[in-house]
Predict the structure.
Amino acid sequence: MKDIDIARQVDLKPITAIAEKLGVPVAQIEPYGKDKAKIPVELIDHDKVGQSNLILVSAISPTPAGEGKTTMSIGLTEGLNRLGKKATVVLREPSLGPVFGIKGGATGGGYSQVLPMEDINLHFTGDFAAIEKAHNLLSALIDNNIQSKTASLNLDPRTISWKRVVDMNDRSLRHVIVGLGGTASGIPRETGFDITAASEIMAILCLANDLKDLKKRLGSIFVGYTFEGQPLYARDLKAEGAMTVLLKDAIKPNLVQTIEGNPAIIHGGPFANIAQGTNSVIATRMGMTFSEYTVTEAGFGFDLGAEKFFDIKCQSAGLSPKAVVLTTTIRALKYHGGQALTDLKEPNTEALQKGISNLEKHVENIKQFNVEPIIAINRFVTDSDDEIALIQSTAKALGVRVALAEVWAKGGEGALDLAKHVVEVCQGANTTFTPMYDWKDSIMAKIEKIATSIYGAEHVDYSVQAKKDLRKIKNLELEHLPVCIAKTQKSLSDNPKLLGRPKDFIITVREIEIAAGAGFVIPITGNIMRMPGLPAKPASEHIDIDNEGNVSGLF
């Protein structure tokens, strides 16, 4: 059966029952219908947060064959609950861009899903819409101030770095001209659109501690310079108050359920190749407040989402994960080893052996953070016994734990071995993760540390524009901020064609964007874009609804 068919067979429990199981007072949740609810931020207990076991689920470098981090995160949580542990999965919200594009939804798969999958994959509780509106309010205020003759801040339009956003893959909006149509329609200038998941507002929402912190961060958004060369921020436009009002409900994490009726918290949705790629600090702390074990995930491979999870989110929020589950598929490793996408169902230990170098590098990277890795083989029916044995022998040679997981086919039952490994690691953990760099280091030092130690690059080149951006960051006194490197997810390098474990390559930083409100800068490498495009045959072609309101085609 397809994922949506499996999901529809489940009789959803009332969200009040899920809240009770989590331990949240029913009177304090804010229901969105019968099966979704918001949880007040005030329920976070920092003492309990410090007592919970935080587990990060990451993966090898993504391929078209898929890896299944979300599916693994959900299945592991089900498995932990089957072992009698109180566990909650905390995930990101899906973006409509991938849902209607090529990747599909982000609610797991098979018998390892969060529900209701249609709602979560579409408008859900309106968080993305609120983020989009708050972002575009600032955009409107910027252009309105340029047009104003009485309240102008003398903003130089040529220096404005703030764009607009829309939650859709629409390449035609990457570069646009606004203000056409005469003097009544504004001042013409060049700008563009990013996808909502790449908005600094999304990043801010996911890193904010509470409403007060959210408002302060919104006010710190860098807009541009005056004609006299003075920096201007959102607070200079008196924008942060109204923007916070638009986000007053979006800041509250969302409570839903898994297929097996366990609590799941879903909140925020930044991409990991162009943003920090993890759910909100608030949602993670909420899960840790009410759970013995909190399972979360970070987007794409360990080199992207997980690095940012450790160096940005954990550093900012004072979190310390006990273990990292590295999701691995034999099909993906064979692809990294040179086997054609159309042939991945065929056993090929030679291609697998070549592709294992990618797995080895990610294991090495996890250990650099002083956290114990656990390799989780996300099993497919086409995996041969010899191929599975090769991964297991590799893990033994690396001195790391490995578990065969069948969460797609069996849900929590298929994750029992993995769950046992996680419990053992958490119970025996006596170390604290070590960040890759010190925030006090220079921006260049931080970029080069990640590029050489995590990606495996020989060195880093900077374009003329990137060097100008470095000087701007120094002049704005923002060198203390961490770096959120935008890079292709398809390779450890910034060249998507270099699979496996490339060596002797150069990372090229072409420009560096400033996200002062979020609290990081964004070095942009290679040809990465912040507004994706749709494929030739988008997933939307197969999405439909019948006369009874039943949705089809979502996956």
Q: What stands out?
A: The mean pLDDT is 95.
